[in-house]
Write the structure tokens for this entry.
Amino acid sequence: MNLEDYRTLFAVTTVGLMLTAAFPTLSLVVPFPRSAERFSELWVLGPNRMAEDYPFNVRVGEEYRVFVGVGNHMGSSSYYMVYVKFRNQSQPLPDASNSMPSPLSPLYEFRFLIIDGGSWEAPLAFALLEVSRLEDSCLVRRMSLNDVIFSVDSPSSWDSESDGFYYQLFFELWLYDVTSRSFQFHDRFVGIWLNMTG
Amino acid sequence: MNDMSFLKSFVFLLVLFVFVSVVSVFEASALSEDVAALAIEEAEGVVASAYEAVLEAEEAGANISVLVARLNDAGEDLAQAHVSYRVGDFEGAARFADLCREIGEGVRVEALGLRNLAVLEAVQRFWWTMTMSIMSAVTILCLSLLGWRIFKRRYFRRVLGMRPKVVSSES
């Protein structure tokens, strides 16, 4: 190496060290893009807070318990709402591909804030309180969700393929949008099937 | 005759009383429904404003964990207000909405204070970081120049100190 090469080496090393020293200031001024994907999680767990032992064959008057949870990976604290809805097999589910929630009216709801990277979980106790049954039809008149009683009047026909009167308790996730100052359906829903046995 | 007249008057008054009672119950119910709806709407606005203030405080770098916990209490009350309203418990709905609004207003004020504090700290931190960066860069530059001068001197001394060496070649 001749003197010119040494001078280049010194200059490059000096500039590198100076940039390293300036990095803390640059990081405060230059917005570095975040590469992480932003999303939210929605889940429902069984009575033991595990993904097992979900209530399925339900009886009138008995109380069942599930846990609903949400995880926030949106890059900042987020304000969520979870709608609890009840449907029979013929009533519509949300259409997540078109960002459309189910048109059914919500019964119960949760509203909460989660910091980025955090999660939230809450129990939901439900019971079918008043059910009318004929040979091939069933009508759920009233149900309770966390000790609040709701009139639902949801009929169901006998499903001969699966042998049962099927209903679904499902949860829709909504996210507060600061721009529109309103909750928007967040394209997430999850539910459990219930078979009205007795 | 007098008895008949008295009976008629009594029946008329009774019917009037029942009518007035029913109308006032309906009116009271409608009124409390309106009051509850208004209270919920106000509470929703307060919680939304509080959330936006918390978000600003978070962006400014403030620690918002306590505010989030309190805003969750407000959210729980707001959800209860909606649920109570849905099942026709308008008094309960108004009560929960008022509780929610109270918490939400407190959180909003605290969040704004925290945001201002965080902004102040961020400005101080920025100036401190910039000063340190500039000082470090200048120090590196000075040390580098000094190092280069020393290196150059040693380099020339080494090159000038070299002597040509005659090597005999044997055929």
In short: DSSP finds three helices and no strands in chain B.
